[in-house]
Design brief:
The protein has eight helices and 13 strands. With 301 residues, the chain is an alpha/beta fold. The chain folds into three domains: 4-61, OB fold (Dihydrolipoamide Acetyltransferase, E2P) (Beta Barrel), CATH 2.40.50; 67-225, Rossmann fold; 239-296, Ribonucleotide Reductase Protein R1, domain 1 (Orthogonal Bundle), CATH 1.10.40. The strands form three sheets. The protein has a six-stranded mixed beta sheet with strand order 10-9-8-11-13-12, sandwiched between helices. The radius of gyration is 21 Å and the shape is globular. Bound molecules: guanosine-5'-diphosphate and zinc ion. Guanosine-5'-diphosphate binds at residues 120-121, 123-124, 149-152, 174, 176-182.
Length: 301
């Protein structure tokens, strides 16, 4: 029998929920991988063979356009495949962490995924000026910032988000409390029902709601939510990959005195000079050094 093709919409261990069109009808099938392998990610397009009416075995993964990693015990593990954009949700209140924002930006840059910042809760006017000033750093680096209020302006927020997400494969991430669930619920009104269905289909257990899942918005747009998500996996990035993930470093690369400069304390370092003179934020250079340190401590994936 010819192989069928489908989109992986949820994963739990070696169990996957695949959405596929069979005989002109959109179906969801419970698939497993062969053997003990679980190298399939949500967002993958896979070839599979049917083993019964609504079950199958994954035979092959079609080449990925992008792959984003999460961190798991100091290793980078797959988070989602074929994404085109990453929306980082921050809020006026509670205040967000720059370290998490920059790590997300590095993850996106190194995977070839376009990042945007969503500043939510702009209705909290007393915290707005400070929040605007803080996201201003990222806007200056060239990252688009969009202001929304899921609570005070749900219609406007939905329109902004839908425009942004049309034709894209998006993942939404944010620290707890920023309003990510509120935004997902605005975009996918039946998200909770869908989650329960997926959980039942994959037999994840009643209380497991932390698996990564994909919601189709229209034929060409989908959004991935990963409620259990903690941290991006950046361990596999080499020093060279890390420097290129900081756009403000790019004009200075190749201008250091030493061709193999680590931008740590070397004389004649163009990056350090830019930090001193204020055109590179000290906070961003510190994170670069921290990430180099972290990746040196782990080997491989
Ligand atoms: P999550 O932890 O990121 O998923 O955040 P939630 O969506 O659960 O939101 C956290 C809290 O912020 C909840 O009490 C929401 O009602 C509130 N919240 C979400 N969006 C807004 C907003 O636009 N304005 C205000 N004032 N509160 C909001
Ligand atoms: Zn240097």
């Amino acid at each position: 029998m010819a192989h069928l093709q489908g989109l992986v919409i949820a994963a739990h261990g070696r169990h996957y929920l695949i959405q596929a069109t069979i005989n002109g009808e959109v179906q969801k099938l419970h698939c497993v991988t062969r053997g003990k392998k679980s190298d399939v990610s949500v967002g993958d397009v896979v070839e599979f063979a049917l083993t019964s009416k609504n079950q199958g075995v994954i035979e092959a993964i079609t080449p990925r356009k992008t792959l984003l990693y999460r961190s798991d015990q100091y290793k980078s593990k797959m988070l989602a495949a074929n994404l085109t954009q990453l929306l980082i949700v921050v809020a006026t209140e509670p205040s967000f962490t720059d370290d998490l924002v920059s790590r997300a930006l590095v993850a996106a840059e190194s995977s070839g995924i376009k990042p945007h910042l969503i500043l939510n809760k702009v209705d909290v006017t007393e915290s707005l000026p400070k929040a605007r000033e803080r996201v201003g750093l990222y806007a200056k680096l060239g990252y688009p910032v969009h202001e929304v209020s899921a609570k005070a302006d749900p219609e406007g927020t939905r329109m902004t988000m839908e425009n942004l997400m049309r034709g894209q494969s998006t993942i939404l991430i944010g620290q707890s409390g920023m309003g990510k669930s509120s935004l997902i619920n605005l975009l996918i009104p039946d998200a909770e029902i869908a989650t329960r269905e997926i959980s039942a289909a994959l037999d994840t257990g009643k209380h497991t709601t932390t698996f990564t899942r994909l919601y189709q918005m229209d034929e060409n747009s989908y959004v991935i939510d990963s409620p259990g998500f903690q941290e991006f996996g950046l361990h596999h990035l080499s020093e060279g990959m890390l420097e290129r993930a900081f756009p403000e470093f790019l004009p200075h690369l190749g201008h250091c005195k030493f061709y193999n400069c680590h931008h740590h304390a070397e004389p004649g370092c163009a990056i350090l000079a830019a930090v001193k003179e204020g055109s590179i934020a000290a906070m961003r250079h510190e994170l670069f050094e921290q990430l180099v340190h972290e990746s040196a401590q782990t080997v491989g994936y």
